[in-house]
Design goal:
Strand content: under 5%
Structural class: mainly alpha
Largest sheet: none
Shape: elongated
Mean pLDDT: 87
Helix content: over 70%
Oligomer: single chain
Amino acid sequence: MNGWILAATVVLGAGGAAALWGVATGPLPRRAVAQNLATSVVCPALLLLSEGYGRPSYVDLALLMALLGPVGTLVFARLLADELEDDQPRAWGLTWTAAGLSAVVVVAVCVATGPGRAMAKLLVIGALLIAGNVIASRALSGGFRGVRGG
């Protein structure tokens, strides 16, 4: 076991436990935030595992998760808008913690990878993951001001 795999284990253990707790014990707003947290934890863990096992295909899976995870949260926010309107979740601390974790992991893996096409892909994954997480969290907490119906 190397440091990359150990870091992925810690990220999945802590983040996965928090997401599982939120899904299993909470009301609807907490479950929706936990779904968003699960995506925000699995994607950096896949990047760490990619480096730990030396398998670049895990990076492609992380790219897919970075694209589809926030979209799933936005679908939930749209479909459950009536139920979430009464008790809107507020998880900005969790959102920025997950965004910070994503940034740290992407930078660490970029340094290990070195310049090139793989680094550009990692930077795109990081941007998608952080922006998607922030946008999805904002959508769950009531949408954007000035946007009708959102």
